[in-house]
Amino acid sequence: MKMDKPWYKFYPKSLLKEVDVPQGGLFTVLEESASNYPDAIAVMDSEREFTYAQLRLAVETFSSALYKRGFRKGDRMAIMLPNSIEYIISYFTILRLGGVICQVNPMYQPMELEYILKDSDATWFISEKEQQQKLNGVGDVKDQIYIISADQKSEDEDDLYRWLEEDNENIPPTVIDPMEDVALLQYTGGTTGRSKGVMLTHANLFINVHQAASFQKDYIDIPGERSLGLSPLFHIAGIVGLNSSILNGGTYIAIRRFRVDQALETIRKYRPTIFPGVPTIFLALLRHPRLKQDDLSSLKFCACGTAPLSIETFREFQSKTDAQIYETFGMSETLITHRSPVGVEIKEGSVGIPLPNTDAKIVDLATGLTEMPVGEPGELIIKGPQVMKGYWKNEDETKNALRDGWMYTGDIATMDEEGYFFIVGRKKDMIIAGGYNIYPTEIEEVLYRHPAISEVCIYGVPDAYRGETVKAAIVLRDGHEATREEITDWCNQYLARYKVPRLIEFKTELPKTAVGKILRRQLIKEEKARMDV
Hints:
The protein has two domains: 25-415, ANL, N-terminal domain (Rossmann fold, 3-Layer(aba) Sandwich); 430-532, GMP Synthetase, Chain A, domain 3, CATH 3.30.300. The chain contains 14 helices and 26 strands. It has helices at residues 28-36, 52-68, 85-96, 110-120, 160-163, 202-214, 236-247, 260-270, 279-287, 311-320, 395-401, 440-447, 484-494, 520-532; strands spanning 41-45, 48-51, 76-80, 100-103, 124-127, 146-149, 182-187, 197-201, 226-229, 251-254, 274-277, 301-304, 324-331, 335-339, 353-354, 359-363, 378-383, 390-391, 402-403, 406-415, 421-426, 431-433, 436-438, 453-463, 467-476, 503-506. It starts with 27 loop residues before the first helix and ends with a helix.
């Protein structure tokens, strides 16, 4: 084994440098927990609760009903459901039968829905009844798929709850080739182009949940933990959180959609111990006027991903709870690749170190071939068994992203001498002004320290002379004021002159994805539209 990976010295003594790749399908995660902890609560959804035994029975019954109606291994089922018991039953049922889950955001409108249904070749579709009217606007796709309702109030013949009352007929076991069989088609956000279907195999998902578990196994109770299900299950961050909770025999607290008031009440009522989130969620809770010191006292630790967490938010959250926030790095194409092991001192601003079985390095931006010296920025590339099989029906994009076994992430990062990684920004987001390379994250970090600023996004706008000009879109905290001159003076104290935003716009809110990630590309698009008028 290579020993030139400096991060190995931070691995807990009980942790092997490589973990065994589990065999079999991802469904065995539920099978084993149901066998070991049948009476433990697996899912809480509002006032409803399912034990592991009840969840396993529901999955077997739904599997029997689907099989009887013709669902077979390799069939693609589009799931358009919020975080709920219905989603979780559907998810494990499709895995049980060897089908492929096609993730669909419930907020999608007919045009977005039509694209995914056509691209994925889905022949089955499950959603709540009220969502199914969207299918009327998707052309001829509706006539090619079997539509199932997942609504307790539905009276449809093809309904999840009717099928759960049927006799559970034994069906043959499904033989899964974990390295080859696709479990999940996770569509990318499409903010920089047409959305692509990421093919994640059973092995990708199975090994990753074990990789992530290895970094916290000495600090959790099995069973017994309660995980807050705020990240949407149609997003890969939500799936990783669900898989982890089920693997550890924990309780997954399903929250249909993030609303800060509801999230705070849920935390008070159910007292979660593990909190996976994104920066905007942590920030929203910290800004809530009714947040009390005791509200977060049940937490053991938190995980933050999808976007860099500002150091100011990190410090403020730490001041209100004893729970550490562990930043993670991952993407749809790679699942989780980096984080700090629980119990190891956190480096502020770092996404941590690579998980077991994972290699990572920083290469030059021009060719992607030359490894950069310690501390120098370049593109982060990753190799490991959790890296996707490829993009669905898109060989060109697959070849561009996967080269010699390495996944080219498009993220600009640095690595320090101890093997800790720091995300600087996205390759496509880098601003080139007057010949200087400017990374938005660095400027945002400075602005988040300003006492009046709640949210900020830095991006480049076209400039005939400088190539691009740095612009800041800023949301102020409630009850606070600031002028453009004050913001400029603040930046001049901490940044080189060429990095200081020349354009500043105050906004009431910033556009975000379904998981709360600020949409920089949307702001750039709006800026260009104004310039074209």
